[in-house]
Design brief:
The protein is mostly beta strands. The chain is built from 1 helix and 11 strands, in the order αβββββββββββ.
C-alpha cells in the first residue's frame, strides 16, 4: 500500500492498525497530567441552550485553576462586567488519581445563581481529556451534571456540560476558553 492509499481511522491506532488505547500519565502526587495542563487562568463566554437548541443565556467567565501537591483550588468569576458578577472558590483533593470535591454549600453556577449541596468527582480519561460528574441543589431542585474538558492545545480548552434537573428540565452549556495566564 502506498502512502497515498493509507487508510485513515477516526480513532487512534498503532502501526499495525490495532486500536491504541490512550493512557493517563501522573506526577509524583498521583495527579493526572491532564489536570496539570489545565492549570492557569482561562477566559471565555459560557453559553447555555435548552434541548431545542435555543439560547437561554450567555456570560463572560474566568476560571483560575491551581494545584499544589494533591490540593486543588478553582476560582470562578462569572457574569464578568455586570452588576451580578460573582467570584467563588472550589477546593478539592486528589485521591487515587481522581479529583474529589467534598460536600459544600458555597457554590455559584456559571449564571451567577447560588446553589447548595455541591459535590463531585473528576478523572482523566487521557492526558488531554477530563470527565467531571457533579451534583448540587439549585432553586430547591436537585441537579446532576456531567462535564467534559477537552484540552485542545496549550492555549485552548472546550468545556461542555449537560444538566439534568429532577423537575424534568435539561440544558447544555458550552464554554470555549483561551488561557490568558500560565
Amino acid at each position: 500500500m502506498t502512502e497515498s492509499q493509507k487508510v485513515v481511522y477516526p480513532f487512534p491506532v498503532n502501526d499495525t492498525g490495532e486500536l491504541a488505547i490512550p493512557t493517563v500519565s501522573y506526577n509524583e502526587f498521583n495527579v493526572p497530567l491532564a489536570f496539570l495542563h489545565n492549570c492557569g487562568t482561562w477566559e471565555g463566554t459560557a453559553k447555555r441552550v435548552n434541548t431545542a437548541g435555543e439560547l437561554i443565556d450567555e456570560h463572560l467567565v474566568r476560571v483560575k485553576i491551581e494545584i499544589e501537591g494533591s490540593q486543588y483550588v478553582q476560582t470562578n468569576t462569572v457574569r464578568i462586567n455586570t452588576p451580578r458578577e460573582v467570584t467563588a472558590q472550589y477546593f478539592g483533593n486528589f485521591l487515587e488519581g481522581k479529583l474529589v470535591f467534598p460536600l459544600t454549600d458555597e457554590v455559584y453556577t456559571l449564571g451567577g445563581e447560588k446553589a447548595t449541596a455541591f459535590s463531585g468527582i473528576a478523572w482523566a480519561v487521557t492526558d488531554d481529556l477530563i470527565v467531571y460528574r457533579g451534583r448540587r441543589t439549585l432553586q430547591n431542585c436537585k441537579t446532576y451534571y456531567n462535564e467534559l474538558i477537552a484540552l485542545v492545545d496549550i492555549l485552548h480548552t472546550v468545556k461542555i456540560w449537560t444538566y439534568v434537573m429532577l423537575r424534568n428540565e435539561a440544558s447544555l452549556r458550552f464554554l470555549p476558553t483561551i488561557k490568558v495566564k500560565f
